Amino acid sequence: MRILGIETSCDETAAAVVDGTGAVLSSAIATSRDAFAQSGGVIPEEAAREQVRAILPVIDRALKEANVDPRTLDAVAVTRGPGLLGSLIIGTTTARILASRWGVTLVGVHHTLGHLLSTWLHPVAEPAPAVAFPVLTLSVSGGHTDLWLKTSRTEGTLLGRTRDDAAGEAFDKGAVLLGLPYPGGPAISKTGEAGDPKRFAFPLPLKGEPGYDWSFSGLKTALRYLIRDLTEAGHDIPSLLPDLAASYEAALCRHLAEQTGKALREHPAVKEVHLVGGVSANKRLRDVMKLAAAPAPVRTPFDIRSCTDNAAMIAYAAVALLEEQPGQARAPVVVSDALALEAAGR
Ligand code: KG4
Ligand code: ZN
Hints:
binds 5'-O-[(R)-(carboxyoxy)(hydroxy)phosphoryl]adenosine; 11 helices
């Protein structure tokens, strides 16, 4: 099998070719992220304009690197949502036109399913991971924080989710408060590397409540008040940045690990824990999750590029859908899908 994946849900334009086992034959990406470093977040209209400029060259690059004739592809997979509407429309429209011109099946993929399957991706030179179900997957990105109990690649139950901000959003908003650039996750990690994570105490949200939900907005507010109080007491904030960043990052990671650990104790049949999405690139989170999950192993995507938005995970999700949910895989992909998902708030 050879599948071309296209992912344009936010500020990245990505195309990749994977085979039926999840081997990444090529993966090309263009990003307009640098343009948003100072704005604290993505400007949707500008992101969509950059998608138009980047999409065909990026697809060309992915096909050339994988050395495939597009007419021999088994499918074109595209993110149908959720995401920024303008960006999604560029991806779905391009995918539809190319698939029909090449005479190839088009598969629409929910962005979250792509992240959930990113742990199946592997380098060409390495064997496909042998995953044992049930799997507990923590999917953490800028748009969602979800905990899934998965019984197959495409089936599972949502055990918990954030009640307000997503974990990545908490990193991004925290970075704005600390005067650090967007995206906030890597900036906070880097600044906090030399800091003391125990210097400042943060509350543990939803402590003692049943279930596995998250709530990050209180931690962000706690950071805001902490900075205000330190400033009023005459402290020099720039010199405290490493300790502030490390303590805030540790608080976010602790909240994520606590709820995942609780779910694991209450679902003892789980064989492995998967950590996916942009925030799964975080070193501290990986470390605390390993401790919280033990003795269950924690699997993360094989490289950082597979943690953040990428097209290989979308292509592999199409493989799983074609194999396990052929009806869903063959449902038509139209621009209104993106609109419908947006309207439904998903
Ligand atoms: O999955 P992703 O690339 O896009 C979405 O689907 O949202 O995730 C982006 C998010 C951003 O909020 C970014 O701050 C966060 O992932 N992120 C990180 C790290 N790298 C990216 N958060 C914490 N630590 C990181 N190293
Ligand atoms: Zn994502």
